[in-house]
Amino acid sequence: MRKTRAKKRPLLPDPRFNDPLVTRFVNNMMYDGKKSTAFKIFYDAIDLVSERTGEANGLDQWKTALTNVMPHVEVRSRRVGGATFQIPQQIRPDRKIAVAMKWLIGYSRKRNEKSMAGKLAGEIIAAAKEEGAAVKKRMDTHKMAEANKAFSHFRF
User: Are the beta carbons of 89 and 77 closer than 8 angstroms?
Assistant: First the structure.
């Protein structure tokens, strides 16, 4: 790697909640540069969450869901003497958020509800209660890291 690492560009906060984390989530959810559509889906999902749970602020539920989905360790492959080992490693805080967002969006898309806003709302509510496919993925990742703890001395 010869050149310097690219600088992190600051994200503009979203118009409704004034939160850059929401913008980051919407950027991950967006298809074909359709940001306004992605924002509409997200805001509809947040409204559905607050409606279904009976809470005034659906954004708090979303943040709780995101925290519940965030993994703390992951396994990385490493070749040592012709064998490939799965080595557990701590995750950087920035990557934790990115992985949690990708899992939440990915498993939302696989749900069986009518609209994407409904799917996202369902996954957010499930993740906030520590249920759902995204939380299960985090548990599986942690289990795999725990199972491969014996190879942690190969850490690079």
Answer: no
Q: How far apart are CA 24 and CA 21, in angstroms?
A: 5
| Alpha carbon 29 to chain centroid, angstroms | 11
Q: What single DSSP character describes residue 15?
A: T
In this structure, is residue 10 part of a structural domain? no
CATH number of the domain that residue 112 is part of: 1.10.455.10
Domain enclosing residue 47, as ranges = 20-154
pLDDT tens, 100-138?
A: 999 999 999 999 999 999 999 999 999 999 999 999 999
Please, where are the H alpha helices in 9-132?
20-29, 35-53, 58-69, 93-109, 116-128
Residue type, 124: I
Domain-located, residue 13:
no
Torsion sign over Cα 103, 134, 101, 142: negative
